[in-house]
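Team,

Forwarding the record for the chain on the shared tracking sheet. I've put the sequence and predicted structure together so nobody has to dig through attachments.
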Amino acid sequence: MPELPEPDVAREWLATMTLIRRFEERAGEMYARAKVGGFLHLSIGEEATIVGSARALRDSDYLISTYRSHGHALVRGTPPENVMAELFGRVDGCSRGRGGSMHMFDMQRRFMGGYGIVGGNLPIAAGIALAGDYLGSEDVTLCTFGDGASNQGTFGETLNLAALWRLPVVFMVTNNQFGMGTSLRRHSAVTDLQRKGESLGVPGMRCDGMDVLETNAVVSEAVRRVREERRPVLVEAVTYRFRGHSMADPEEYRSKEEVASWRERDPVPGFAELLIAEGVIDEAERQRIDEEAIARVDAAVAFADASPLPTPESLYDDVYVLDQEVRGWYSLETADDRGAAAGGDEGPAGAERGDQRAAANDEIPQQLTEALAAGEDGRERSEEPA
């Protein structure tokens, strides 16, 4: 067994795992009360994988997640108040209420977001790693994804390019045994997932994702190799989710006995009991850590409930549009624009705010709108909503 970290570090790991557990439990309650819209994917049971891997990173490294991303936002330091507000769709959410459960984001802490598309974060992670390599930094990107995503085309394409270009990225497949409701042995011909990158030039490693110490030790070694050798590594973290794929999952594909057997290895009380046995904490401190986590989550719910909803006027904020009525950004390049650099409030090169461009030439957005309204056969489309 890997050695325990310093006592203060060990306590922080337990406190963070406990916070994630209590946050996810309360998020499920809020979903049942219709406070949370859309889908909700909980990471209850995967806390050791989340904390162990994230604590192998430097603050300057990047972490990119999947749609099961609340714990990753919390482990990177996003306040639970802002994470809960995002679930509630409120303006004080970490994505200003625009993303909800599956699209957490915190650039300040280099948490590059959750992604609703299975495997969609893989090429983005490669792009982040490529940017770091291009800038000559020592930053490493950790990309987490599920076992089901290892069957996506983006998996092979991204690992191939990452190996070819020697990108500093750790790919971590969170093997929680199921791709939605399909067991690993039924959706993957190769069930030893650490080997899936070998033919693409990406060596593999494996860790017990229910053990925060082993996860941290293995991912730390992977990060070291990636940082020093400038080549990608694939890590398989074998873990289990105690709840369904999402809150809408009736869980008819696995037995209660199977779930119960995995719950015997629950990473949160398991790590707490280890710390008690090693004299790092006592039972009273474990209770205090849990009570503090519950109080913090209570405060997060109150904060989210008090946070206002986005105003109707903000509907088109940060949206690229081709319209004269909505003064957002639209992309249009002319001969005069080519080579113009972005700066201040001027937006991307070759793009201007609708009101700025319209003031200079009212005909341009009108022409664009008319062109978009015309069908391929030249007939006008109906203005009635479909």
